[in-house]
Amino acid sequence: MEHYNWLLSLCVILMSTKIFSIISRRAQLPQVVGALMAGLFFGPAVLGAITLHSFGTQFCLMPSELLNRLAELGVIVIMFTAGMETNLDELKASGKVGFVVAMSGVLVPLGMGMGLMYIFDDNVTFASAIFVGAVLTATSVSITVETLKELGKMSTKAGNTILAAALIDDILGLICLTVITGIAGGDVNITIVFMKIICFFVFIAVVGYIYHKYMVWSDEIQAQRNLRRYPVMGFAFCLFMAWASEALFGVADIIGAFAAGMIIAMAPKGQYIASKFETMAYLLLTPIFFANIGLGVTLPKMSLNLVLFTLALVIVSVFSKLGGCGIGARLCGFSNQQSYQVGLGMVCRGEVALIVAEKGMEMNLISEQYLGPIIIMIIVCTIITPIVLKGAFKGQEDVAGDTMFEDKFMLEEQTDEIEEDIFRRRLLLSTRTQE
Amino acid sequence: MEHYNWLLSLCVILMSTKIFSIISRRAQLPQVVGALMAGLFFGPAVLGAITLHSFGTQFCLMPSELLNRLAELGVIVIMFTAGMETNLDELKASGKVGFVVAMSGVLVPLGMGMGLMYIFDDNVTFASAIFVGAVLTATSVSITVETLKELGKMSTKAGNTILAAALIDDILGLICLTVITGIAGGDVNITIVFMKIICFFVFIAVVGYIYHKYMVWSDEIQAQRNLRRYPVMGFAFCLFMAWASEALFGVADIIGAFAAGMIIAMAPKGQYIASKFETMAYLLLTPIFFANIGLGVTLPKMSLNLVLFTLALVIVSVFSKLGGCGIGARLCGFSNQQSYQVGLGMVCRGEVALIVAEKGMEMNLISEQYLGPIIIMIIVCTIITPIVLKGAFKGQEDVAGDTMFEDKFMLEEQTDEIEEDIFRRRLLLSTRTQE
Questions:
Q1: Distance CA A392, CA A378 (A)
Q2: Quick one: average pLDDT of B123-143?
Q3: Greater confidence, A8 or A30?
Q4: What count of Cα atoms within 13 Å lies in the side-chain half-sphere of residue A153?
Q5: What is the mean pLDDT of residues B270-299?
Q6: Stretch A166-172: mean pLDDT, rounded?
Q7: Which of A2, A6, A7, A42 to mutate to test the interface with B (most CBs of B within 10 A)?
Q8: Contact status of A407 with chain B (Cβ, < 8 Å)
Q9: Which of A238, A328, A373, B39 has a CB 3.0–4.6 Å from the CB of A104, allowing a cystine?
């Protein structure tokens, strides 16, 4: 019987993340909060603690080899799709303002996060301090955009800047992670590490160029049929790049996956390939990734020192982004109110923060006890942002935001209907012959 | 470095199964043959043997815990989608002829397969003999249909009968497997086993009824938005049923998954849910399933006795289906030529045979040495069927088969284009605000 329990675990993870996501959506919160909560609830932190208290044994889901691997695959696919959705031309166009805001919004949290570690952790090393700092740097694009859309403030000056800065912010965060994993990866010689990182970027450029040329050539000579090979080959390419990053250059696998996504999106068939990964992500890999993080938390271990650290982390994470991005906006000539709006909009943290934290734990640079505080920080940030943002934008006129939201909803409706219709027609075609 | 090698393994599996599939499609063979070949090539059977011979060490992919689990998930998803595509009403309509052909086409191979085991294996038990027999029972619907479509003979009387019989054959094979796994599962008391199986069918009926009622109710009261929850919940339901089959009733998990598929397909939103699993299957799970089977084969171990067994197995598998189904068709009043066509059309074996074999090995009822012969049998059957079928149908007029094939191809083209278009529009909507 035990042999099949992993099926039940997967079932519970899928169901609970979905149910908790639906609840958190009803409460106007991003779904990622719900998925994390599901992991916390069914893991040792809550259900495990309750059953241990009541029955003397723990009944809860535990992270297993399979779940860990699937979660790793999940984060690779998340970063791969993020890469496919990042448009290089758009980044160039968004220009200086976005870059300044993003830059100061990365440096201030990085510095303050490091300071926090030097205050609270007696065994702190430079590498572990910089890692906790890096966790605080990445704004969550999806959560920010979702919040602004719900408020109907996407098209304001502040809204535009937030979007551009959040995109650049992601890339800065990843470059930061590249350098940190390189430095902390065991190589003592800093020169070699930087050589490796430079080689990595050259490698990306060369592989990207070859892939692009090949796809242009293949697009010209090949018939349009049998399109399935493209997503499969694209996925294989993503896995290869993830592996190559780690194995050949000592750079985090997710950065390779992100680069693979950007390369694929710019070549022919890129949009087609990108359209195929959504279902696999939300049906299997993303829920497991988020739930697995929650499952790794054991709250009962929290000491007073850790509770204080959590409080400080939350305060630092909110005010470092608010301050950093706000100052950046102010320097670019924004009004005080607009700078405040931009700063607030960048406070949201999400999957990238978790990914960096996971990476840090994997490399033994972030102690496992900090996972709880980091998760609480993310949840608090995502809960307060929409509420405070609402206040900050009060009094401004709406810029057709609601209709855009309606637009997207309608489009999704249509898509689902078309897909269902196509499936019916396919089924009909394959069985029509019996009549 | 070793820590990341699983990424490279996945990459090699995806690429090689796709490349081998493309090659086998070019050679007019079903793609499943290619995927199996990829596993054989990169596993210990070929690449491992070559490198062991040349370098003294084995460089090859090995089945691992992760691959095994993903392959298990793959077969559950395959059976789940097969269940979703099985239409109960169609089965009822296809009536007596299909049932008689399927029945004799199951019993003859079952009997002959058992006989073969009693001749060749000295340590044979009743349970292991019946398992090898069961491997021979299941005709592969997909391969049969694909072959007939390519020949343009779907709408002939023989074609219709083959399709109906193949569908019933699948269900008979699964019932057969249910009983066998029950008997061989360790319970000594036959009465208890049958009680459990009856309870299982009652359980399926009750759960199916509740699910249907719930979906009708939920379809009436809920808004149409947020459709994503349905596929996720459907998948969770499938996993639960797979677990429940094994854990509560001692029935193979794939049968639970198949039943879950049938239940979902008949309820509201069934077609929508079904349309979502194709991508996940072909992007990740199906290639791993087939490749993993190939990886498990170690050809060098083949003794003379085993080579003879392979030959005998191939001959028995072809002639038992040809004879069994042919006789069934003849009994129902088909002409000699038509009976021959029906028999030939049912010779194809495929994924279900592999699934039963895997199950048997997992339960220690089929020795691992028989995996090689079974794979060779499947490959030979799928290679010869299209060739011989072509001859058997020669001289008959075409019944608009080619246009149907064209139809389906056109439809797939359109689908892909629409999907790509939708993705572009979604991306546009989410970034339009920056302009």
A1: 21
A2: 81
A3: A8
A4: 23
A5: 82
A6: 75
A7: A7
A8: yes
A9: A328
Q: What is the DSSP string of B175-235?
A: HHHHHHHHHHTS---HHHHHHHHHHHHHHHHHHHHHHHHHHHHHHHHS-S--TTHHHHHHH
What angle (nearest 5°) sits at the alpha carbon of residue A309, between those of residues A304 and A312? 130
For the segment A259-306, what is each residue's pLDDT rounded down to a tens digit?
Answer: 899 899 888 888 888 888 888 888 888 888 888 877 877 665 668 888
- The answer to whether the Cβ–Cβ distance between B275 and A419 falls below 8 Å is yes
Cα–Cα distance measured from residue A74 to residue A355, given in angstroms and rounded to the nearest whole number? 11
Per-residue pLDDT tens for B165-216? 876 777 777 777 777 777 766 555 667 777 877 888 899 999 999 999 988 8
Q: Going by C-beta distance under 8 Å and a sequence separation of 6 or more, which residues neighbour residue B358?
A: B75, B293
Taking residues B89-93, what's their average pLDDT? 65
Cα pseudo-dihedral A198, A173, A277, A253, rounded to 10: 50
Residue B338 CA: distances (Å) to CA of B152, B159, B325? 16, 9, 11
Chain position carrying tokens 């290089």: A88
**Is residue B405 over pLDDT 70?**
no
Which pTM does this prediction carry?
0.76
Instruction: Name which of A354, A353, A345 is nearest A385 in CA terms.
Output: A345
| A76 → chain B, closest CA residue | B7
Q: In whole numbers, what is the pLDDT of chain A averaged over residues? A: 79
- Mean pLDDT, rounded, for B254-280: 86
For the CA atoms of B377, B380, B382, B384, what is the dihedral angle to 10 degrees? -140
Give yes or no for residue B430 having a pLDDT over 60. no
Give me the helices (H) in A56-156, please. Answer: 65-85, 88-120, 126-137, 141-151
Q: Does B239 touch chain A (CB under 8 A)?
A: yes
For A408, which residue in chain B has the nearest alpha carbon? B429
Q: Does B408 touch chain A (CB under 8 A)?
A: yes
ipTM above 0.95, yes or no: no
Mean pLDDT along residues A34-44: 82
Tokens of A67: 């779940």
For the record, the structure tokens of B270 come out as: 């069934």
Mapping DSSP to helix (H, G, I), strand (E, B) and coil, where does residue A431 land? helix
Q: Supply the DSSP symbol for A302.
A: -
* Chain A (157-176) residues lying within 8 Å, Cβ to Cβ, of chain B: 159-160, 163-164
Mutate to test the interface with B, among A218, A275, A403 (most CBs of B within 10 A): A275
Task: Report yes or no: A265 and A259 within 8 Å, Cβ to Cβ.
Answer: no
Q: Which residues of B touch A402 (CB under 8 A)?
A: none
Q: Round to whole Å and give the CA distance between A132 and A122.
A: 14
Distance CA B370, CA B378 (A): 12
